[in-house]
Each structure stands twice: as C-alpha cells, then as structure tokens.
C-alpha cells in the first residue's frame, strides 16, 4: 500500500498531545485528538511492519483500533499486516470489516481486490476493482485499472488485461508498467508491430529494467533479429547480472 510514513518523532509527539481543562476548579488532562492519535498509531504500526518488526506493528495497530474502531483505514492497515504475516483469513475479515464501516471506500476496494487476486480469487478481485473505479470521488482510478490488468493477466485473460491496461493509460498515459505489460502481451499474441510501438513509448518515460529488456529480447527473437537480441542481451547482463531474466538469456530460454 502506498501510504505516507511519518517520522517516529512526529508520531510520538502526536501521541503525547494533550490539553488541560478545568472542571470544578481542578485541572484535568484529556486527549486532544483521539482520531489523530489513532492515525499516528496506525502509521507507526505500518512503519514497524515495513521494518520487519511485526510484533511492534501489531501492538500499534491494535492500539490504533482501540482509539478508533470505526476508521476503515485502520482496518485496512490491519488487513495489510495480516497479509504480511500470511494470515489470509484474518486479512479478509479485516477488509470486510473496513467495507462494513464504509461501503464506498474505494481505497479499501482496491487493496481488497489486490489481496483477492493474490489469493487467486480472480472474479471476486475484479468485482472489487470495478466497484472502486465506479466511485465518483476516487482519484486513483488509473492505479486500480492497472491492478485489474495485472490480475487479469495473472489469470490468463490477456484480452481483458489489455482493456484494463488501456483504461489505466487513458487516465495516465505515461504509466511505465501498463505500457510494458501491454507490450509483453502483444509479443505473446504475435502482434509485433504493436509490441514495438508500446516498448518505444515505454523508453520515453522510463529506464531499462530486467522486464523491459527481456520483452525486447522476446520481440527481437520472435522476428529473428539476432543482432538486436544480442545487443539487448548484453545490456541486460551488464546492467542486471543477478536477475532471473539474465539467467534466462544466458540459458537461451527466450
């Protein structure tokens, strides 16, 4: 999940933020912002999770939930935690809880769809993606169409994947991953001119990656352009010698 991670010192200062009020002549310390404290705990939990400290991650996420159990973002973060520690049943429960609180939370639908795809529940994943993009206030439509494309490609539905990647590019024409995925599918479907066109578009917006160079190698090999194959192969091995794609190239597996 793409989230803003605050520094630990900022988070801790948020957690300690209190105000003083006077009741019947006595000073009473009370929480200044329970929701802010919940968000801070949530962000701290995510930060620990990204550092690999799952115990502290869960501790802080549970604290966030104790502050505010009606925030779908906290349940979504908890679902992410359960994904990381490989507890899919708990993750799905957390996603469903988030949606029960906010039925039109497109971020939750997007993340839930990504989770379902990893669980190979492709039809259910697609349903969540399409629900998300139909939320009129949702701004990450391109991201979700791209996720839908990746899921469709993973399930072997290449024509459907092309449609979703094209939709993603309609919202953001300079999306490297969508450009590269479309190129790869066109190579597989033997639409070589289309594949070349998308690879050239990719080169205008992004740098070489093992996947992009491997797609070039597949394309040039399919068209029997051995000189180009060797050129891209040398670039692949020189730039990314430890990559799986380099090993495939060196083993002539293309």
Automatic annotation (TrEMBL):
Keywords of this entry: TPR repeat
Keyword Membrane: no
InterPro entries: Pilus_4_PilW, TPR-like_helical_dom_sf, TPR_rpt
Database matches in Gene3D superfamilies: Tetratricopeptide repeat domain
Pfam families: TPR_12 (PF13424), TPR_8 (PF13181)
Residue stretches of each TPR repeat: 38-71, 142-175
Domain of life: Bacteria
UniProt xrefs under PROSITE patterns: PROKAR_LIPOPROTEIN (PS51257), TPR (PS50005)
This protein's name: Type IV pilus biogenesis/stability protein PilW
Gene of this entry: pilW
